[in-house]
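Reopening this one. Same input as before:
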Amino acid sequence: MPDRQRDGKRASYLRVRFGSLRFYIVVIIVAISLHYIGLLFNYIPVKPMVISPDLKKRELDLWSEMNKLLIALATAGVGGIGGYVLKEDKASPLQPRELRRAAAGWIFCALSLYFGYLSYHEATLMLNKGTFDSTNPGLWLASRFQFWTFLIAVLLFADLIYGAARARRES
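Same output, byte for byte:
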């Protein structure tokens, strides 16, 4: 079945354009859903038990690896957004709305790096006291904020690329 044409441009069969507003509405719905799914895991009963020093060390190693991964990915995100902005065709520079998305992506990558630093700082304070607990509220919140700010940065980068591709396709 051939695509319908409207003003020389391809039209969707549903007659709905997937613009930035709809994109962010879907992102918000997905984020809220993921948040509540995460909360469900907190209600799973856990039997308190004494953990051996080997398991405590493994807990620290797992937390540390996840923190390093998120820091590396946020740093790569900064570079990816920068590379995308700098490689754009000089004949058709980025529009202000695309530059705002790039700036917002950089800001959220920077926030993710900052929360990663706060996580390391909190872990260092705990280790100086001779303990480590990944459920400590300070460490837990910093780790969650690190993840969510990174995820928002990735979504902003995806929207930047999608919006620029859509604008090129429409012009």
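So the earlier flakiness isn't reproducible anymore. For the record, The mean pLDDT is 82.
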